[in-house]
């Protein structure tokens, strides 16, 4: 599990220092990347970092935590409210806070809050970075791809081919939709090789079940269901043809 990139939003310096020290001592999976004493500075930090976790006081100068969250809108980070005002608990839950810690901070509660977020992020990572294992049959197997909001689930059978684009991959679906994903083609080759996908070229990974024709040549080419013709590298020809013996 990678470190959780985190900021503290708290108007009182003493409170910030206490929380910072507790995190450093008791929460080794947290990487503190910034602090803010008001919602304006907090908004800048949130916009400038890809955060996993925000520790957020409720009452601050020039607005409160809920004003900040409304301004940020949809976000991928989890929120842990840290405040002395327990009446905000329901509002915190309504804002989908991961956890709620009352001041003075209990170390046990803080550790529990961080562990909860770690578990959430690990689960997200598993879903974003691999096949969904619940369905093995190729007709129902699915793969998840990361998006800015979370992840999208694709039926493997709906993928025609994948094309390398530097460190990105373009995924072409039977519906004529293209998805651009921040994963390498090698990643998808490893993920899909057991689902009848074959690397036919350094830039192309093809769904064997979508191939309608093979055209002879040094390496030749394949034609897919949508009429797309893709060149086959000479070094990949044998691997491709082994699927049709």
Please characterize this protein's 3D structure:
This protein is α+β, with helices and mostly antiparallel strands and 245 residues long. The protein has 2 domains: 4-128, Response regulator (Rossmann fold, 3-Layer(aba) Sandwich); 134-244, OB fold (Dihydrolipoamide Acetyltransferase, E2P). It contains 7 helices and 18 strands. The strands form 5 sheets. The protein has a 5-stranded parallel sheet with strand order 2-1-3-6-7. Strand 9 (142-146) and strand 10 (151-155) form a beta hairpin. The protein starts with a strand and ends with a helix.
Question: Characteristics of this structure?
Answer:
OB fold (Dihydrolipoamide Acetyltransferase, E2P), 5-stranded antiparallel β-sheet, 30% helix, alpha+beta, 245 residues
Shape: elongated
CATH level-4 homologous superfamily of the largest domain: Response regulator
* Count of distinct strands: 18
Q: Whole-number average pLDDT?
A: 86
Number of domains: 2
Summarize the structure.
The protein is an alpha+beta fold.
Secondary structure topology:
Elements: E1 4-9, H1 13-26, E2 30-36, H2 39-48, E3 53-56, E4 59-60, E5 63-64, H3 65-72, E6 78-83, H4 89-94, E7 99-102, H5 107-128, E8 131-132, E9 142-146, E10 151-155, E11 159-165, E12 168-173, E13 178-181, H6 185-192, E14 197-201, E15 204-207, E16 211-215, E17 221-224, E18 229-231, H7 237-241
Parallel strand pairs: 1-2, 1-3, 3-6, 6-7
Antiparallel strand pairs: 4-5, 8-9, 9-10, 11-12, 11-15, 12-13, 14-15, 16-17, 17-18
Helix pairs in contact: 2-3
